[in-house]
Amino acid sequence: MSTDIPGIDPLGGLRAPQDPHCDVFLTGTVFLDIVFTGLDSAPVRGTESWARGMGSSPGGVANMATALARLGLHTSLAAAFGDDHYGEYCWDALEQGEGIDLSMSHTVPGWHSPVTVSMAYEGERTMVSHGHEAPPPATGPDRTTFPHCPPRARAAVASLTPGRSEPWVAAAARHGARIFADVGWDETGRWDLEALPDLEHCQAFLPNAEEAMRYTRTDSPRDAAHALAERVPLAVVTLGAEGAYAVDAATGITAEVPAIEVEALDPTGAGDVFVAGFVTGTLADWPLADRLAFAGLTAALSVQEFGGSLSAPGWAEIAAWWQRVRTCDGQDPAALQRYAFLEALLPAAARPWPLRRAVPTIGFRHPA
Predict the structure, then answer these.
(1) Which are the contacts of 168, defined by CB distance < 8 A and separation ≥ 6?
(2) First and final CA of the chain: distance in angstroms?
(3) Which helix (H) or strand (E) is 48 found in, with range?
(4) How many CB atoms lie within 10 A of CB 247?
(5) Cis link prior to 207 (omega < 30° from 0)?
């Protein structure tokens, strides 16, 4: 678990007694991630490669849930967990380690946990996964009513799939949740926005540049963002090493923030962390440029550590980074000013940079 700073609640000044307890709801598949880092090159057929680093953590939708929880948002996750040791480990890590509400989740007897092995090298990653679709949860008076009735929440995060509609998305929107959505690669090759029926319920849509241009038939990410803003209130296009660009359809405001240059160890989960940072800033009613900057910062901090949920930064990491960059020589004053909004959020004192997280694994019976 990321070291947190007690008392930091990004929504503290906005909470009211009638508000839902849940800040963000999400659902999806939880994987056990086994991550190898420190590989000099891709594995070569017929040889054995040794990695200099390794860690295990909940992955898949758990990356996003962990990133949200570490930023101080009350997070509820609905997912299936296997009744094997992997599933038990993932449940405990999320509920006890990260404080994520799993009351909408369930354990499936006889179903083994999906597993992903990720190998990071040369700033990229290669993944091998195995798993089977979980059977639906049992129904009855003692069971939850999800997916037909998701909990009341300020926001929900969805992953859109071409040709598929998730009933819970519309239900969450009807109950007042602001829907934030990303999308994966369209394996059909159609790249048709009409094939994303849940897009109509979305407050914000956050594809990457390649996805955005293909869906809008445009030649630049910025043109794609403006085209998407005709379909959703807020379009955010991530530009990789160039940062991100956003268009607010209601106000006409646009914002572009460059990425922070870092040495990337493992990009696993960086997109999830970006979305979590943007959701946090949006729920806190920050200006659009501040939301983009914060999302980019959290993503940049995450790629300097390995693993998806392992690498998600909390306020301790953010505070340590901010303290460090202000004392480093040669900083661009304009670049520092871009993150000056952090002053009102962070304590004056922070632990020294860099913060090193523990390297977790499965099976320790006693503290190391």
Answers:
(1) 27, 146, 147, 148, 150, 156
(2) 15
(3) none
(4) 25
(5) no
Q: What distance in Å separates the CA atoms of residue 334 and residue 348, rounded to the nearest whole number?
A: 21
Kindly report, residue by residue over 79-93, the tens digit of the pLDDT: 999 999 999 999 999
Q: φ, ψ for residue 204 (rounded to 5)? A: -140, 140
CA–CA distance from 259 to each of 112, 180, 230, 243 (Å)?
39, 21, 26, 4
pLDDT in tens, 160-177: 999 999 999 999 999 999
Model confidence pTM above 0.85: yes
Does residue 147 have a cis bond before it (omega within 30 degrees)?
A: yes
Query: Residues near 273 by Cβ (< 8 Å), separated by ≥ 6?
Result: 63, 67, 295, 298, 299, 301, 302, 311, 312, 313
The DSSP output letter for 49 is: -
Label residue 313 left, alpha or beta by phi (over 0 means left) and psi (-120 to 50 means alpha): beta
Helix pair angle (209-216, 221-228), 10° resolution: 60
Q: For 193, which DSSP code?
A: G
Which residues, 6+ apart, have CB-to-CB distance to 11 below 8 Å? Answer: 23, 72, 73, 154, 283, 284
Alpha carbon separation from 97 to 58, 81, 113, 133, 301 (Å, rounded): 11, 16, 19, 26, 20
> Are the C-beta atoms of residues 244 and 281 closer than 8 Å to each other?
no
3-state secondary structure of 94: helix
CA distance 96 to 177: 26
Write the secondary structure of 305-321 as one string of H (helix), E (strand) and C (coil).
CCCCHHHCCCHHHHHHH
Indicate the range of 13-22, 59-68, 347-356 predicted with least confidence.
347-356
| Helix, strand, coil percent values for the chain (each to nearest 5) | 30, 20, 45
CA 366 – CA 368 distance, rounded (Å): 6
Q: At residue 94, what are phi and psi to the nearest 5 degrees?
A: -80, -45
